[in-house]
């Protein structure tokens, strides 16, 4: 006679979760374990982990034919997060644990050979998908409990071992619950803007970029403060609201970058600065096997800083054009297309030439070398950069008037952001950088005398329509 049981888990597909129904059938054939439902190599190996963990938990592993079917069958299942669900499904099919306790319960976690539960990535997006599917109870490893506690409307439990889960299913012991008071992280201390001496034009450009959500390019010799200014932009930006913070946390969780301490949720805009040797998968997302979010997605609702941008391969720089326009990255794989949010603020820093002397008159680069160096930043990419500011060498450290600090500038930035949010609230745009160009040119049209410099440059062919739209966005931010 064949015993049957059903249990729930969740598969991670990009930064979205897909509820997976696991059916366990025990008996009716030669001993063996058969996994069906497009499992990957890590999931295929779970058979040995699950069997060892069940034995170490003091339960008997059935010496019969075991079929474990994961549905939807057409969705590829990847990773080790199904281990606990598979173990409980087998034991429920043999009557070792009550099957009714598994109804509506999601089980996530990797099993060690001795039965310990290990954290897995993507718990937060998996729980959000489970909640949307009507599942209201979940058991996760203790290391993932703070992350799981971010999801409202679900009964969340944490277990340290398979034996803890089985005892809880039998009603013999309770499991740990998340601490509701430890969900939000304190605001960290940011680098102080007053540390940047001089560079009044660049400081003004950084303030405008932060106020309007505009992309920025800083060009100047080494030591002029390009990196310092870029690192201080995040301190000027407004905090993320809860929905944005949860979306960012989901991306970090899917990438395996979410902190597992008591403060997995942060309202601080991210600052991501990948090295110019980063691969396409590291920048945009993807990779061999399971696709993961890249730097552009980890910078969602924050700043992506590319230092020494002419050193980046041109094809990677040009690949930024789509996420800059659409706010997302699409990674195509044989088993489907993964979509990652990627609405970030791009900040670029570049030297004027390869040798980059403090005084441009001392440059030893030939004209062809300088031209090739600048051509690494293609015209279509530069057409998407709103502000370009030259930076000059610093001539003195002493100033008569101390530079404005982060708090002073941030107050003006927040006021400008609040005004823009109120102005565009009925349309759903957050800042001036989000407003489509056709809307600015039609519904919010400026007088002809105001836009005459733009139209004259367009007629001469020195400015594109996209560039004119970006100039209008910056004008609304400066207004």
TrEMBL record:
- The segment(s) forming the AAA+ ATPase domain are 212-395
Coiled-coil residues: none
Q: Which residues form the signal peptide?
A: none
Q: Which GO MF terms are attached to this record?
A: ATP binding
Report the superkingdom from the record.
Answer: Bacteria
InterPro entries (alphabetical): AAA+_ATPase, CHLI-like, Mg_chelat-rel, Mg_chelat-rel_C, Mg_chelatse_chII-like_cat_dom, P-loop_NTPase, Ribosomal_Su5_D2-typ_SF, Ribsml_uS5_D2-typ_fold_subgr
Q: What family, per the record? A: Belongs to the Mg-chelatase subunits D/I family. ComM subfamily.
Write the protein's name. Magnesium chelatase family protein
Question: What is the taxonomic lineage of the source species?
Answer: Bacteria, Bacillati, Actinomycetota, Actinomycetes, Pseudonocardiales
